[in-house]
Design goal:
alpha+beta; three-stranded antiparallel β-sheet; two-stranded antiparallel sheet; 7 strands; globular
């Protein structure tokens, strides 16, 4: 696990976000690659106006939307850095 917080977010276009992490890494992330299906809590993210309401929650260290949807910061960092998430010696993401 990385345990590196997201410190800034900016909506680029569509479902793309520019994320900055506390270690200085900045990356453009396509949320279509991260959210498997925009259902349930993620369904409102299909609305561009709602999607653009994303913000950083400093307590959680990740991005959140007004309905409580959030993404694990380790998942975001894995996509941003290209580094896999390893749990108990096994690759679980990326």
């Amino acid at each position: 696990m990385f345990m590196i917080d997201v410190v800034a977010v900016e909506v680029i276009e569509g479902h793309e976000l520019q994320l900055t992490f506390e270690d200085g890494l900045t990356a453009r992330i396509d949320m279509d690659r991260i959210v498997a299906s925009f259902e349930g809590v993620f369904a409102p993210l299909l609305d561009p106006v709602f999607f653009s309401q994303v913000k950083v929650d400093p307590e959680l260290g990740t991005i959140v939307w007004p309905n409580g949807a959030d993404i694990c910061p380790d998942v975001l960092y894995s996509f941003a850095s290209g580094k896999p998430i390893i749990v108990n010696g096994e690759r679980v993401l990326n």
